Amino acid sequence: xxxxxxxxxxxxxxxxxxxxxxxxxxxxxxxxxxxxxxxxxxxxxxxxxxxxxxxxxxxxxxxxxxxxxxxxxxxxxxxxxxxxxxxxxxxxxxxxxxxxxxxxxxxxxxxxxxxxxxxxxxxxxxxxxxxxxxxxxxxxxxxxxxxxxxxxxxxxxxxxxxxxxxxxxxxxxxxxxxxxxxxxxxxxxxxxxxxxxxxxxxxxxxxxxxxxxxxxxxxxxxxxxxxxxxxxxxxxxxxxxxxxxxxxxxxxxxxxxxxxxxxxxxxxxxxxxxxxxxxxxxxxxxxxxxxxxxxxxxxxxxxxxxxxxxxxxxxxxxxxxxxxxxxxxxxxxxxxxxxxxxxxxxxxxxxxxxxxxxxxxxxxxxxxxxxxxxxxxx
Length: 378
Fold this sequence. Notes:
Distance between the termini: 91 Å
Helix content: 40-55%
């Protein structure tokens, strides 16, 4: 129990509102730890304020130095000096609430309690933000009601079956944005996804120099590259079957080199370098990769090139189309899927969007022959 010592201290505020203070001390004067405890209380018309010199919230400055206060006698000109302490006064919220009000407050969410605090103690800026958020919430509810009503009217007018067909058609159109140009009326398989739409003549010509590493590669070098994992599995497997004809061999080498670059490029996230695939990659190919297979994003004050999930799907579609041209329009999707570290469902979705026929087959002898692979045919 505490007892009052004094009610004399008075603090005059800028608004001419007087705060009268009461100081209380602990009655347990025989205990050294408790006999110096003090409690300072002040009341106004709106709030009560409480400060103390004990507990976890006590000001540490009182233990580091001593404070004094001087009282000047104007008549004699003499000043009396007294010991003093600093108290950090905090608002004291009364807990004398009606039972219903207390229960209603306890049932409120954290956000609602914070809103009540902002209403009572918030700055003008916080109160304006709170008002704006509440207005937006009302507008959102009105919009949601209007959208629900409009959707119900559309369903009644058009029917659920027709809406499902429209959604399915929209999905096909959305996927087609990331696919190579498809010529549905083509008479030959090679004209469905034309080679010129994957590599322009200028780009194809630029691949002549870097692809020379594949043209005269020996079986021993292929084994070494396989151990080093210098190239993806699809490329290493196809290098074993380069045609003897010089023109065909050169063509396949260029296609394999570009396919390997595409797969490696798909693993990048944010591209910060001007030539992300190294100096051996021709400038026109680097420009093609940056222009066709990345998105521009603004981050930390600079523009960056980003390979998003949709861009990786686009790269995958172009890899499949190029692999079809390499393998006479029939290719092992599972090998490509493993090289690109994709889920099978994702690979199947892209293959179906490209209107490929997918069947089961055994894997290559060197690459998990007992595993069931997915074979795509154009």
